[in-house]
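Data deposition worksheet. Section B asks for the primary sequence of the deposited chain exactly as it was used as input, without tags or linkers unless they were present during the calculation. Section C holds the resulting structure in token form. Section D is free text for depositor observations; keep each observation to a single sentence. Incomplete worksheets are returned to the depositor.
Section A, Depositor: J.P.
Section B:
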Amino acid sequence: MFERLDHEESVVRGELAALREKAAVLEERLARLTITRETLASLVGDGRGGAAVRALHPMPDPPPVPGPASQTGMASDEPTPTPGPLDLEVARERILVLLTGAHQALKVQDIGEAIGEHPERVETTRSRLKKLAKEGLVAEVSPAWFAITPAAREHPGNGGEGPGTA
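Section C:
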């Protein structure tokens, strides 16, 4: 009897581990789709919820930076195609908005990419997340995975879902 019970328990544990792995992959995919939808809606603003997304998840535009585009005669209002270093406060606000909207933990690399930070600056993003964790606004749920805390959802000015927001 015990051998059969041990075998059944082993099978169930294996199935549970496989389901958890699949759920994590699906949650990450859903987070990316949500971020993509919000980004497109805010850029397009074509009546498909762009204004509502911007109201719930405002991400300030980075200040214009003079560079090669203005020297070559290209339109100066074109967005830069590659991400770059972000100002501390801009990055902080974008991280809080992103994690509040994600409703789940996200990887450091995905957070950096989503907020527009250069991929080579992943350690800068990690450092900023660790600082936010010390402040109690985010939590490191496992190594390199961060989520918004309930306290941060009610914290004014971070795009959270505290009282008075939809």
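Section D:
DSSP finds seven helices and three strands in the chain.
Confidence is low (pLDDT under 50) at residues 46-82, 158-166.
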